[in-house]
Amino acid sequence: MTSILSRLDLRPIRPRDKHEPHRVASTLELFFDLVFVVAVSLAAQTLHHLETEQHIAVGAGAYLMVFFAIWWAWMNFTWFATAFDNDDWLYRVTTIAQMAGVLVLAAGVETGMVDGDFTLVTFGYVIMRLAMVSQWLRLAVNSPEYRTVAVRYAVGITVVQAAWVLRLLLPESVGVVSFLVLVVAEVCVPVWAERRQVTPYHNHHIAERFGLFTLVVLGEGLLGSANAIIDSLKDSEHIVPLVALAVCSLLIVAAMWWLYFATPLHGRFGTLRQSLTLGYAHYVIFAAAAAMSAGIEVLVDLYGDQTELPPVAAAATLTVPVAVFVLAVWLLAVRPAATGAANAIIPLAGLAIAASALLPAAEVFTAALLVVIVATLVVTGRDGTVRNARRAEG
Q1: Is 370 within 8 Å of 330 (Cβ atoms)?
Q2: What are the distances in angstroms from CA 366 to CA 15, 154, 217, 319, 321?
Q3: From CA 90, how far away is CA 75, in angstroms rounded?
Q4: Every domain range in the chain assigned CATH 1.20.1410
Q5: If you compute the radius of gyration of the chain from its CA atoms, what whole number of angstroms results?
Q6: In this predicted structure, what is the pLDDT of residue 392?
C-alpha cells in the first residue's frame, strides 16, 4: 500500500497531533472559505430583497433553511481538516470538488428562497457532502485506529444525502417538516459516529476557524455600510439618515466583532458534548451575523423610499439579528468568564437592542447599546486587549 501511495505521490491520511504547537489555518482552508463568501452573500442579498418586498417571515424561514446547508457543509469540512488534513494533491482536489458544490448551491439560493425550488441547492449540497464521504473513506483505509469512526461517518452521511435527494420528490406540503427531520438526522451523524471514539480535533485551530468564518459573515455588514454611503452620494435628499446609518452600521459591526473575540473559545472545546454544543450553536451566531447585513440594506431602502415596509418592521430586520447574535455570544462564550456586572448588563442590552425597533432611528440606539456592551467588557477587563497584548509580547 505504501509503495502504491508513493508512486501516486499520495500521503496516507493520519490523525494530526491535537496539541501541535503554532497550528494555524492553511492557505487551502482560507481559499475554501472564499467560496462561502459567495454563498453567504447571495443568501443575505436574497433575504434583503424578500424583506424589502414585505415577505419577512417567509424570507427568514427560507434563509434559515439555505443557511443550514451552507453552515453544515463548512463545519463538517472544518472538523475533518482540523484532525486529518494531510494536504496532498488528492486532498486538495477533493476540497476543490467541495468548493464546486458550494458554487452550485450558491447558484440555487435565489430560486430556493424565492420560489421554494431547492433542487439546485440540494444537488450542490449533496456534491459537497459526498466529496466529504470520500475523505472519510480514505481515512478508513489509511488509519485503522479511526476506521470505525470513519466508516460510521461515511455511511451516515451517504444515507442522509440519499434522503435529501428523495425529499425533492415529496409534495410541498411536507417540505418544511421533511427538512427539519433531515436536519436532525444530519446533526446526529457526528454524535453517532464519535460515540465511542472522538476524532483528534485541535482546540486552538478549530477556534481560529470559527473566528475566521465569523469575520466572513460580519464582512457582509461592512458591505451594507458601504452601500449606505454610496446611496447617500446619489441621493442628496436623504443624505443625513443614510450617512448616519453608514456610521451606525460600522459601529454595530465593529462592536459585534469586539464582543465575539473578547473571550478565547479554544478552552471551551473540551468533551465531545461541549464541542458539539459550541459548534452547533455557531449556526445561530453565523446566521444572525449574516442576516444583520440584510437588515442594514433594508434600512438603506427605507431611507431611500424604495420600500413600503413599515418603519418598525424594517428596523426589526436589523435589531433582531443583532440581538440574537449578542445573546448567543454572551451565553456561549462571554458569560462563563465575565463578571457579575457584565453578565447583568450584556443580556439586558441585548434585549433592549431587539426592542429598539419600536423607536425612531433604531440603528442609533442599537449602536449605542453595543458601545455600552463593549465599554462594559473594557471596564471589567474582559475585552481581550490585555490578553492579546501579553500574547504578542510573548
Answers
A1: no
A2: 45, 45, 19, 7, 11
A3: 20
A4: 203-393
A5: 22
A6: 40
pLDDT in tens, the chain (394 residues): 556 656 666 888 888 888 888 889 999 999 999 999 999 999 999 999 999 999 999 999 999 999 999 999 999 999 999 999 988 999 999 999 999 999 999 999 999 999 989 999 999 999 999 999 999 999 999 999 999 999 999 999 999 999 999 999 999 888 899 999 999 999 999 999 998 888 988 888 898 999 999 999 998 888 877 777 776 667 667 788 888 888 999 999 999 999 999 888 877 777 778 888 888 999 999 999 999 999 999 998 898 888 889 999 999 999 999 999 999 999 998 988 888 889 999 999 999 999 999 999 999 999 999 999 999 999 987 766 545 544 444 4
Measured at the alpha carbon of residue 300, what is the angle toward residues 295 and 305, in degrees to the nearest 5?
A: 125
Number of Cβ within a 10 Å radius of residue 344: 12
- Level-2 CATH architecture, domain 203-393: Up-down Bundle (1.20)
**Cα–Cα distance, 322 to 292 (Å, whole number):** 6
**363 touches 252 (CB < 8 A):** yes
Cell numbers given for 302: 427605507
* Cell output for 154: 461515511
Amino acid at 17: D
Eight-state DSSP code of residue 268: G
Joined together, the cell numbers standing for residue 352 give 433592549
CB distance 112 to 78 below 8 Å: no
Alpha-carbon distance of 241 to 220, in angstroms, equals 20
- Residue 120 makes CB contacts below 8 A (sequence gap 6+) with 104, 105, 107, 108, 111, 112
Grid coordinates in use for 121?
Answer: 441547492
Q: Can you tell me which residue has the cell 458569560?
A: 335
Q: What distance in Å separates the CA atoms of residue 353 and residue 332, rounded to the nearest whole number? A: 19
Distance of CA 293 to the CA centre of its chain: 13
What is residue 170's DSSP assignment? S
- Residues contacting 392, CB < 8 A, separation 6+: none
Distance CA 217, CA 210 (A): 11
Q: Please give the model's pTM, rounded to 2 decimal places.
A: 0.92
Closest CA to 351 of 330, 332, 335: 330
